[in-house]
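Q: What residues go here?
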């Protein structure tokens, strides 16, 4: 096992090395420029369509709103609590700046992913819409690229059990045991029952649960975070200053913080930013492909909000709370660092609040990734594989909650990067289609109406 861990560790250092970070930022920036920064300039249009999209507006299984909530259920998770804290611990306050940069280019990436997912989606044997990178590679590119779609689906099906199942269940079990003394086996069984009650009903039930739970948990966490920032209002200006100065100059050692070079701020800011909002990984478009939407561009405008909400809003609140409270120099890392920042500001309440938030975030991530994983398997074996996959997914939750997942974390992180590679190649190759659909959509004034003939598939 140690030898295997070393091999996977070596692969991980390559796939999450400078080339991957350049690829993620490079493709995102290329798309943002090609779209003439539309995802940023049309942010208000996206929110307007999101509000209108609470009801179905075309062919598909779930409303545009619930498609975004399903996507957010998988993205707003441990990355927003533990991931941000890890980035700041390893890269210093400047890491938060690079998370922001990743999100700004990532909005264009997420937009393009959703546009292509709806444009090239198919219907399976049961009449359900299926889509995502494996389908827009299959239907949008030449046959010589078909292997890329298979590679994405293979990596996605395996990675889901790690990053979307075992790691999340383990995080819930650990935080409930340390804060409330709940046995990990008990947590495992409860999570299995709750997950089974939702995912056995398919995407419609997942979307319905996500549509209610995700807004509630996100708003609750944002309110609590803003309260922490209000309590530390005197330190916010200094915190923002640290974020910008340490993004371009090394962070000196301070208290329990060991110091960090600028490269570390960039590396961990980008890597944790992508881990949090998943822009470029190719996971979110699998959910957006099921949306009952007027057309590809409509769903793209809704999809790009996921990156904005996840990183620019939620991650910023976590990061600024950690820095403004001074907790970032404590030597703590991960969820413990975020918990310390909240506990210092809200004694007797902050730690428990983070424990509950992390548990709910992780549970919804399990729901969202179950859908991603089953669609990757369905790409190979069709609809007949969905129910066996769901049953296996439920069973694996217990093992995730009760096992030591050091190796699983490493493997899942590696496979996540390997999912991103075929997806980013496809996005670059299919970018002319994205640009063309976008030009036609806005030329027909479709955005102002939330529909339009150019937006049709």
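A:
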């Amino acid at each position: 096992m140690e030898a295997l861990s070393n091999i996977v560790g070596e692969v991980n250092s390559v796939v999450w090395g400078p080339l991957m970070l350049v690829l993620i930022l490079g493709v995102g920036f290329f798309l943002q420029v090609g779209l003439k920064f539309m995802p940023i300039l049309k942010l208000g249009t996206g929110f307007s369509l999101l509000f209108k999209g609470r009801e179905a507006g075309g062919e598909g299984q779930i409303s545009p709103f619930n498609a975004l909530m399903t996507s957010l259920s998988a993205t707003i998770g441990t990355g927003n609590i533990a991931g941000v804290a890890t980035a700041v611990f390893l890269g210093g306050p400047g890491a938060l700046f690079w998370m922001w940069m990743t999100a700004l280019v990532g909005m264009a990436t997420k937009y393009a992913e959703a546009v292509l997912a709806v444009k090239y989606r198919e219907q399976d044997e049961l009449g359900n819409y299926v889509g995502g990178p494996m389908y827009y590679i299959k239907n949008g590119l030449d046959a010589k690229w078909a292997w890329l779609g298979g590679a994405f689906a293979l990596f996605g099906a395996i990675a889901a059990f790690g990053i979307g199942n075992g790691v999340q269940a383990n995080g819930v079990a650990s935080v409930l045991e340390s804060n409330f003394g709940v046995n990990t086996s008990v947590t495992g069984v409860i999570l299995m029952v709750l997950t089974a009650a939702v995912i056995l009903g398919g995407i419609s039930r997942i979307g319905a649960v996500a549509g209610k739970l995700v807004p509630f948990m996100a708003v609750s966490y944002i309110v609590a975070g803003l309260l922490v920032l209000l309590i530390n209002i005197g330190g916010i200006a200094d915190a923002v200053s640290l974020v910008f100065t340490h993004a371009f100059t090394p962070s000196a050692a301070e208290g329990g913080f060991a110091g960090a070079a600028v490269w570390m701020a960039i590396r961990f800011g980008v890597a944790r930013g992508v881990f949090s909002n998943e822009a470029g990984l190719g996971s979110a478009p699998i959910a957006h492909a099921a949306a009952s939407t007027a057309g590809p561009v409509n769903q793209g405008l809704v999809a790009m909000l996921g990156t904005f909400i996840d990183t620019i809003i939620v991650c910023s609140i976590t990061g600024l709370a950690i820095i403004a409270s001074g907790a970032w120099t404590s030597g703590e890392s991960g969820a413990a660092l975020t918990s310390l920042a909240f506990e210092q500001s809200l004694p007797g309440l902050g730690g428990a609040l983070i424990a509950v938030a992390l548990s709910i975030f992780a549970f919804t991530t399990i729901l969202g990734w179950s859908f991603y994983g089953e669609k990757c398997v369905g790409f190979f074996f069709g609809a007949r594989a969905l129910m066996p996959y769901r049953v296996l997914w439920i069973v694996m939750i217990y093992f995730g909650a009760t096992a030591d997942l050091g190796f699983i974390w490493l493997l899942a992180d590696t496979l996540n990067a390997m999912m991103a590679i075929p997806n980013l190649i496809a996005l670059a190759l299919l970018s002319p289609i994205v640009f063309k659909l976008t030009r036609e959509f806005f030329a027909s004034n479709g955005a102002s109406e939330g529909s339009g003939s150019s937006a049709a598939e």
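A: Context that may help when evaluating the design: The longest strand covers residues 122-123. Residues 406-443 form the longest helix (38 residues).
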